Amino acid sequence: MLKILGKAPSINVRKVLWTCAELQLPFEREDWGAGFRPTSAPEFLALNPNGMVPVIRDGDFVLWESNSIIRYLASRYGGEHLYPAEPQARARVDQWMDWQATDLNRSWSYAFLALVRQSQQHRDRSEIEASCANWAKNVGILNRQLEAAGGFVAGERFTLADIPIGLSVNRWFGTPIQARPDFPAVSAYFERLAGRPGYADYCRNGTA
C-alpha cells in the first residue's frame, strides 16, 4: 500500500492526501514533522535529504516534492481526468502548478508566517504589508484567469492544478489580512470546489 510520510496539517502533505481522495487511492500515513518525529532523523534524511515533508513510498519507489508526487500519483493510478495525457492540456496544468509553487507561494510566505504562525522572525510591518500586497496581486491574476477559463484554473474542468491552488486559496481566506480585496471569481471558485472528494477533509478543514 502507498505510504505517505508527513503530518496531516502540512499544506504540502494535504496536496497528496487530497489527490489520493480524488483517485480513490488507499494509503497509510505516518506523522513526521514539527511536533512529531523529526525530519532531521537519519532514517528520514535517507529518504529525503532536504528533510521536508511529504515523502511517499510506493513499494520500493521513494519520491519527495509535493507537486512531483501528485503528478506521479495521477499518472500511475488512472488520473488522466486530473492530469491529461495530451501535451498541450498537460502543459496548461503544469503551468499553473508551477506558478503556484513559485510566484504565489513566495508572495504569501512572509505574511502567513507573521499573521498566522505568529513567527517572531517575521515581525517587520513593512515586509508584512509588502507581502500582503504581492499576495493580493497574484490572487488578482488568479481571479482574471478564473473569469477567462470557465470555472477552474486550467479550463472548464477540475484538474490536478486545482489542488495546490485550492489549498492556496484556502490559505488566502484563512489569513487575517486587513482590507482584503474582493475577488468574486476566486470566492466563487472556492465554493465550487466544495463538491470535490477530499475538499472538506484536506482543504477547507479549518487549517490554513
UniProtKB/TrEMBL annotation:
<protein>
    <submittedName>
        <fullName>Glutathione S-transferase family protein</fullName>
    </submittedName>
</protein>
<dbReference type="InterPro" id="IPR004046">
    <property type="entry name" value="GST_C"/>
</dbReference>
<dbReference type="InterPro" id="IPR004045">
    <property type="entry name" value="Glutathione_S-Trfase_N"/>
</dbReference>
<dbReference type="InterPro" id="IPR036282">
    <property type="entry name" value="Glutathione-S-Trfase_C_sf"/>
</dbReference>
<feature type="domain" description="GST N-terminal">
    <location>
        <begin position="1"/>
        <end position="81"/>
    </location>
</feature>
<feature type="domain" description="GST C-terminal">
    <location>
        <begin position="86"/>
        <end position="208"/>
    </location>
</feature>
<dbReference type="GO" id="GO:0016740">
    <property type="term" value="F:transferase activity"/>
</dbReference>
<dbReference type="Pfam" id="PF00043">
    <property type="entry name" value="GST_C"/>
</dbReference>
<keyword id="KW-0808">Transferase</keyword>
<dbReference type="Pfam" id="PF13409">
    <property type="entry name" value="GST_N_2"/>
</dbReference>
<dbReference type="InterPro" id="IPR040079">
    <property type="entry name" value="Glutathione_S-Trfase"/>
</dbReference>
<dbReference type="InterPro" id="IPR010987">
    <property type="entry name" value="Glutathione-S-Trfase_C-like"/>
</dbReference>
<dbReference type="InterPro" id="IPR036249">
    <property type="entry name" value="Thioredoxin-like_sf"/>
</dbReference>
<comment type="similarity">
    <text>Belongs to the GST superfamily.</text>
</comment>
